[in-house]
Specification:
The complex is a heterodimer. Chain A is mainly β. Chain A contains no helices and eleven strands. In chain A, strands 2, 4, 5, 6, 9, 10 and 11 form a seven-stranded mixed β-sheet that branches. The relative contact order of chain A is 0.32. By secondary structure, chain B is mostly beta strands. Chain B has no helices and twelve strands. In chain B, a hairpin with a 2-residue loop joins strand 7 and strand 8. The chains are: A mainly beta, B mainly beta. Chains A and B meet through strand 4 and strand 9 of A and strand 6 and strand 11 of B.
Chain lengths: 115, 117
C-alpha cells in the first residue's frame, strides 16, 4: 500500500460526458502528479501541483483540468470525453524528506472507459 | 528536454537465469534521480530500485541491481535468479532536480519481461 488513494477505481461513461477523478496523497506529501497511461503505452505526465498551486504542465489537453485543494487532495476533471481518452489515470505524490528523496508514490489508478 | 529511451520492447528469460534491461537518458542536469518501476498485470506501479546521480556506487536491492554509467547516460537493470513473479512491464524513469526543486518523473516506453518456467 503506497498510501496514495484514488477513486473511483473503475469508471465507464459515454462520449461527450464529464468525469472527475479524485486523489488523496500520502500523509504529509505536498506534491501531487497526474499521469495518463493508454493501452500498452508508457506513462504520460499530465500535470503537477505543489501545495495547492500548479507547478508543471505536461501533455494535458484543454478539455482536462485539475486542482489541488487546501487539504491537499486533488481532482482531475475530464470533459467532452472521447474514445481516445480511455486510459488508466494515475495519481502520485512525493515527499521532500531525505529518506524518500526523489521517489514518487503511485496510487492504484483509475481506469476510465469511454464508450 | 529530458528523454528516456528503452530500446527493448520485449524480453524473455528462463526462471533462475539473469537478465539485463537497458535504458539510456538524455539530460543537461547534473543532479537527478533514476528509477526502475515494475508494473505487473495488476497495473500497480511498484518501485524496484532508485539511483541518485551524485552517488558513484551502483544501487542494489536483493536480486535487483543497476549499472549506472553517468558519462554514457546509461542506466541498466539486472535481475538475478529470475522468478515467475518478475513477469511485468518495467519502466525506466528520470527525475531532475534535487531537494525541494524536483520535477516530474519522465518515463521510458517500457520493456515487457516474461519469465518462463
Amino acid at each position: 500500500d503506497s498510501g496514495v488513494t484514488q477513486t473511483p477505481k473503475h469508471l465507464i461513461t459515454a462520449t461527450g460526458q464529464r468525469v472527475t477523478l479524485r486523489c488523496s496523497p500520502r500523509s504529509g506529501d505536498l506534491s501531487v502528479y497526474w499521469y495518463q497511461q493508454s493501452l500498452d503505452q508508457g506513462l504520460q505526465f499530465l500535470i503537477q501541483y505543489y501545495n495547492g498551486e500548479e507547478r508543471a504542465k505536461g501533455n494535458i489537453l484543454e478539455r482536462f483540468s485539475a486542482q489541488q485543494f487546501p487539504d491537499l487532495h486533488s481532482e482531475l476533471n475530464l470533459s467532452s470525453l472521447e474514445l481516445g481518452d480511455s486510459a488508466l489515470y494515475f495519481c502520485a505524490s512525493s515527499a521532500v524528506e531525505r529518506e524518500n528523496a526523489g521517489e514518487l508514490f503511485f496510487g492504484e489508478g483509475s481506469r476510465l472507459t469511454v464508450l | 528536454a529530458q528523454t528516456v529511451t528503452q530500446s527493448q520492447p520485449e524480453m524473455s528469460v528462463q526462471e533462475a537465469e539473469t537478465v539485463t534491461l537497458s535504458c539510456t537518458y538524455d539530460t543537461s542536469e547534473s543532479n537527478y534521480y533514476l528509477f526502475w518501476y515494475k508494473q505487473p498485470p495488476s497495473r500497480q506501479m511498484i518501485l524496484v530500485i532508485r539511483q541518485e546521480a551524485y552517488k558513484q556506487q551502483n544501487a542494489t536491492e536483493n536480486r535487483f541491481s543497476v549499472n549506472f554509467q553517468k558519462a554514457a547516460k546509461s542506466f541498466s537493470l539486472k535481475i538475478s535468479d529470475s522468478q515467475l513473479g518478475d513477469t511485468a512491464m518495467y519502466f525506466c524513469a528520470f527525475r531532475g532536480g534535487y531537494g525541494g526543486s524536483q520535477g516530474n518523473l519522465i518515463f521510458g516506453k517500457g520493456t515487457k519481461l516474461s519469465v518462463k518456467p
